[in-house]
Specification:
The strands form 2 sheets. Strands 6-7-8-3-9-10-12-11 form an 8-stranded mixed beta sheet, sandwiched between helices. It has a 4-stranded antiparallel beta sheet with strand order 2-1-4-5, covered by helices on one side. The model has no long low-confidence stretch (mean pLDDT about 90). It is globular and about 65 Å long. The longest helix is centred in the middle third of the chain and has 18 residues, at about 185-205. It is built from 10 helices and 12 strands. It has helices at about 55-60, 85-90, 110-120, 125-140, 155-170, 185-205, 215-220, 240-245, 250-255, 295-300, and strands at about 5-15, 25-40, 45, 70-75, 75-80, 95, 175-180, 205-210, 225-230, 230-240, 305-310, 310-315. Helix 3 crosses helix 4 and helix 5 (about 155-170) packs parallel to helix 6 (about 185-205). With about 325 residues, the protein is of the alpha/beta class. Helix 6 (about 185-205) links the parallel strand 7 and strand 8 (about 205-210).
Amino acid sequence: MNANVLRAQDLHRDYQVSRGFLRDPATLHAVAGASFELAAGKTLAVVGESGCGKSTLARLITMVELPTSGKLQIDGADVIGASTETLRGLRSKVQMVFQNPYGSLNPRKQVGEILEEPLEINTPMKAAERRAIAQAMIAKVGLRPEHYSRYPHMFSGGQRQRIAIARALMLNPKIVVADEPVSALDVSIRAQVLNLLMDLQAELNLAYLFISHDLSVVRHISDDVMVMYLGRPVEFGAKATIFERPRHPYTLALMASTPAVMAADRRQKIAVKGELPSPLDPPPGCAFHRRCPRATPVCTETRPELRPVDGRLVACHHAESVG
């Protein structure tokens, strides 16, 4: 059994937002109580609408920002309260692949320079050793040796994302955070990049935190799924369990909105009214109740906590009747 390389417990990330000269700042709860574990060689997908806290969670895991409260462990070491030197060492174990391959690569540097930069900054390696590792990584992600001396504008979107993946792997990380890594690519290229990620995971025993709003992609690549709404996890469990029978109305709505070719895979659409509420002024009780067709008075008064239902954790008062 693979050991956990990431453990998060009740993570919170708050921001103080100015509301004008005569009003007190408001507190925005971008992530409000996320708990999960991630083992080597496994993929946890985090899904939800824009504004649900997915990207903020990615910044916490990559230690770009530190949590306001909670507990976060990377490879057994505590992140909160860690020294600058410890954080520097931990950051090399967590790397990120960004959404837009057209904006995440420096257009003024050749591919070889882009790949060697993490080694130059973080290791005492000599130039020849860095070059050899970069050339080996170019081959590993399916590019050709002559690509080493080319610039990013000379590549297609899929090739650029392969370069971005190669850069993320240069420091031999244990965790890769992939933030919508295929959403900016042509549909014909997405499967190639996803299959590359899965092959690299099997070869290198990588743990993926895969952030996406595309459930068809999540179904292809994930082992576990965490559905977030307004900064909170609302359903969390094994992929097969959640896709077979979702137990939260929001998860059901997300799946019903995903196109399916086969009639057997299509779900009855449920009516979801309105838009995502402002995280500066979340509704009382269940944050989803104003949009939920199953809401009852208890939903408007009491916020549901995650609890075990049918083999997964779900935050819904009526989970037993959903799905």
